[in-house]
Amino acid sequence: MNAIAPVHVRTPLVENQVADQARTLGIPEKEVVEKVFLAQAAVKRLIEPEEVAALALYLASEKAGAITGAVFPIDLGWTAR
Questions:
Q1: In the chain, what are the helix, strand and coil shares in percent, each to the nearest 5?
Q2: Nearest one of 5, 72, 77, 80 to 38, comparing CA atoms
Q3: Tell me: the pLDDT tens digits for 19-76?
Q4: Which letter does DSSP use for residue 33 in this model?
Q5: Domain boundaries, the chain
Q6: Which of 41, 34, 36 lies closest to 7, judged by CA?
């Protein structure tokens, strides 16, 4: 078993959270993404679903058959901070 641990992925759930935070904080959605969601990230962008899917497909393939018990952060540099 392996785990994929992404931070904020551009999904409908995250998009709704961005909109909710913008209303709550009274700031533009772009500012919410930059100042709230990505404040701790080295790379200032949301993760695309295709990036997570590509890793999942690799881990499910025979090429990754020797990889077990690992956690794969997709975190735009949060852990490198």
A1: 45, 10, 40
A2: 77
A3: 999 999 999 999 999 999 999 899 999 999 999 999 999 999 999 999 999 999 999 9
A4: I
A5: 3-74
A6: 41
Tell me the residue type at 73: P
Residue type, 44: K
Helix (H) or strand (E) holding 68: none
Q: CA 4, CA 26: separation in Å to the nearest integer?
A: 33
Residue with tokens 């990889």: 67
Location of structure tokens 């058959």: 65
Residue type, 55: L
For residue 36, what are the CA distances in angstroms to 26, 31, 46, 76, 80? 13, 8, 12, 14, 18
pTM for this prediction: 0.85
